[in-house]
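Handout, page 2. Input:
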Amino acid sequence: FSENMSIEDAILQCGGLKQSASVEKIEVSRRIPGQAQYTSKAAEIFTFNISKDLGVGAETAGFRLMPFDEIIVRNSPGYHVQQSVTIRGEALFEGEYVLASNSVRLSDLVNNAGGLTPDAYILGASLKRRLSEEERNRIESKQRLSRNISGNDSLSTNILQVDDYYPVGIDLRAAIKKPGSPEDIILMPDDKMFIPKYNGIVKVSGAVLYPNAITYIRGKGLKTYLSKSGYYQNGARKKPYVVYMNGDVA
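Output:
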């Protein structure tokens, strides 16, 4: 603080405004000096619009800062940082693509990538989405609780490993067939789509006698693949589940 300091002076000492800064509704919060009688008012608020070049404007002319004032500069509601998604595998032009709007869908990304190659297995297309900070915190909290219940050190976080991405079950064939349909979901920043080649292998793992990779047999059900893996081990739960290439689980 120095005598006769303006809002613009203080912002300049902080390096100036970011590109995302709003020059409207700059707020100054000022302490109320001690008074003899009780008051519920905790601070006095002043609101100004300033110029982008930080020249002293009409609204701030004559306004000078006081010790302990707090200046709040908010983000502009119309400012957006370019964010992108990725498509890999059997797309003609794989790579990163910028989200031009908040409503880019699966079919839009495929079209932007020039479509799919003749070798693409569209039923196996998968999507991975980045965990939000809230989702990550929730998972880590559950892990700590589980460790605490099991008698382990709940404060030890160095072995807690949470994958940054989680699978999203998609039906790309339906999305391309009917753009804008519920199956044609809206993409989020950092989404990763993968278009595989056809893979005629079914992998059987878990509590079976012989975990195995088996050639796909059209029309055959679950028991056929279990039989080719030696059926269940003793003590197996006998309620198997299937993870499909596109991320769906049944």
